[in-house]
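Hey team,

Filing this mostly as a record. A colleague (T.K.) asked me to run one chain through the structure pipeline before their review meeting, and I want the input and output archived in the tracker in case anyone asks later how it was produced. No errors, nothing strange. Just documentation.

Input sequence:
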Amino acid sequence: MTTPPAKIILDCDPGHDDALAILLAAGSPAVELLAITTVGGNQTLEKVTLNARRVCTVAGIRGVPVAAGCAGPLARPLETAPEIHGETGLDGHDFPEPDVPLAGVHAVDLILEILGREPAGTVTLVPTGPLTNLAVALRKDPHTFRRAREIVWMGGALGLGNVTPAAEFNAYVDPEAARAVFASGVPLAMHGLHLTHQVRVTESVRRRLREMGTPVGRMAADLMAFYTERYRRRFEMGDPPLHDPCAVAFVIDRSIFRTQRMRVDVETRGEFTAGMTVCDVHGVTGRPANAEVAMEIDVVRFWDMMFLALAALPIQSS
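Output structure:
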């Protein structure tokens, strides 16, 4: 008996790694992509929403609504990441004008509409940016929000930061939202920096993307070349980690991950630790676990999954 594809809503802030998360979700037969929703994060809401439409246009992703959501965090000014993603949020590729329209509905309303429409426990929320949209949806209609099957988030970290010594970007941008979502009662899986730094965009990966010879392959290769150079400049890291697709990969095939259940709390007030995901690895607090934290990934199988998905996308004209 064939397992039906997992129904997901991808909530993102494209972003170079978000772009590849979109491609993985759209190209994998194990996923039914119900919607792409955007949130202010890597760049402003206007820019990341345009980027989602651009990626969908090049990849031939049609019939998937793209909806813009919250422009900034619940309680703080928005901080973006142009030092990594450039002024457009997706620098490095010459995109055509997008022909994928923007849905005429707010992302929060679209998330709730889909959760209310689909059978309870069948839709997985896959956020790869700040958790603002999800926190607002939870606040607006907690009953409908809790119909979600699971939340699979790329964010946080176990003892590692990339914006501050303590905080990962997505958690740092809106820690109040992250705290609310972790407390929502919906099962949550966290894919933090300690996990995503295992998946590197090596020279062989970049060459393999270029050798695909398709518009999608060229787009991905251009984006990863820019992303690599920015990571080298900012972090002195030769091969950058590919964060966001890890969350999508978890939905596709959990068997390539090793996870551990634990308590995760989000710091919102610390002078040096705002945005830190405090992971109780050894259960020292005695508080109940509220997250499944991904600890290890089979990198070879991840890249096999990614390239199969890229190859399955429609070949568009250049």
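Quick notes for T.K.: The chain has 13 helices and nine strands. The radius of gyration is 18 Å.
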